[in-house]
Specification:
By secondary structure, the chain is an alpha+beta fold. The protein is built from seven helices and eight strands, in the order H-E-H-E-H-E-E-H-H-H-E-H-E-E-E. Strands 2-1-7-8 form a four-stranded antiparallel sheet. It has a four-stranded antiparallel sheet with strand order 5-4-3-6. The longest helix is centred in the first third of the chain and has 17 residues. The protein is globular, with a radius of gyration of 17 Å.
Length: about 250
C-alpha cells in the first residue's frame, strides 16, 4: 500500500526533530495580515556539493530498491540542508531574496566544512524516514541565525494550504505541517537546530540493519543556497530563488 500523505508528512516533520537524538547536547513574528493577502511557505536552504549529493543519491537508490514506493530525490524532493522554514507575504518575496542574499554574499558559505557522521531514521509504524545527520558547527549556527534575522521582518504568523505547492488531487496540507512551519522559530532553530539531509523511505526492519553498519564520516560543503516553496511532506518542492555563491 502506498504511504499516505499524512504518513509521509508526519515522517518528514518528525524526522527533523528526531535528529536531536543523534546530536549532542525566538524571534518576534509580524502579525498576520488583516486582509487575505497571498502567503508563501518557504524553505531557505543550502544546496550541498557533489560529495553529499553522491552519498544522498546512493542511499536513496539503495532504499528504493527495497521499498520502490518511496520517493526519489528529484526536482520536487531536492537534497538540501534547511536553514529555516517560514511563512512570508508573497508580495514581499523579492525583499526576502534581497535581505537573505546580503547574508549569503557576506558569509563564506561555500567555505563551510560540514561533517556528515551517521544515518538516522524516524519511525512510523512499519516505515522509517531516513536521513544523513550533519554536525552543526558554530559557523553554520551563526549563518542560520543571520538568515533568520534577515527574513523575520517579512514573516507572518501562519498560513494555509494555499501557501504550499499542492496538486488538484491533493490540495490540502495537513494542519500538523502548517503548525511545524509556524513554530520552526524557535522550536527547530538555534539550540534546537539539527541539520540533516533526508534520503528516503524504507521499512524499519531494513533501516535497523542499515544503521548497524559502519558509517564512514565524510566532509562536504555547500555549493549554493536557495529559497524553495514547501510542498506536501515538508519537501523543497519548487525553486523560487537560487544564488551562485563564489568559492
Amino acid at each position: 500500500m502506498k504511504p499516505t500523505t499524512k504518513k509521509l508528512t508526519t515522517l518528514l516533520m518528525m524526522g527533523a526533530l528526531a535528529c536531536a537524538l543523534a546530536l549532542p547536547g525566538g524571534n518576534a513574528l509580524a502579525q498576520a495580515p488583516a486582509k487575505q493577502e497571498a502567503i508563501t511557505a518557504i524553505d531557505i536552504l543550502l544546496l550541498p556539493d557533489a560529495t553529499m549529493l553522491q552519498h544522498a543519491q546512493a542511499t536513496n537508490d539503495r532504499l528504493r530498491k527495497v521499498y520502490p514506493k518511496g520517493f526519489a530525490l528529484d526536482a520536487s524532493h531536492h537534497p538540501h540542508v534547511t536553514l529555516v522554514q517560514r511563512f512570508v507575504l508573497t508580495a514581499n518575496l523579492d525583499k526576502v531574496y534581497a535581505a537573505v542574499g546580503k547574508v549569503f554574499a557576506s558569509a563564506n558559505v561555500t567555505g563551510l566544512k560540514l561533517e556528515a557522521f551517521k544515518y538516522y531514521y524516524m519511525p512510523d509504524k512499519d516505515l522509517g524516514l531516513s536521513g544523513i545527520v550533519v554536525k552543526p558547527t558554530p559557523e553554520l549556527l551563526e549563518l542560520e541565525h543571520q538568515v533568520i534575522d534577515a527574513v523575520t521582518p517579512f514573516t507572518v504568523k501562519t498560513g494555509t494550504s494555499a501557501a504550499f505547492v499542492t496538486t488538484p488531487e491533493d490540495p490540502e496540507i495537513l494542519p500538523a505541517l502548517i503548525e511545524y512551519v509556524t513554530t520552526f522559530v524557535p522550536k527547530a532553530s538555534g539550540d534546537h537546530y539539527h541539520p540533516h539531509v533526508t534520503t528516503g523511505l524504507a521499512s524499519r526492519e531494513y533501516l535497523d540493519k542499515m544503521l548497524k553498519e559502519p558509517f564512514e564520516s565524510f566532509t562536504f560543503s555547500p555549493a549554493g543556497a536557495a529559497v524553495y516553496q514547501l510542498g506536501h511532506f515538508g519537501t523543497a518542492a519548487k525553486k523560487l530563488k537560487e544564488w551562485e555563491l563564489k568559492p
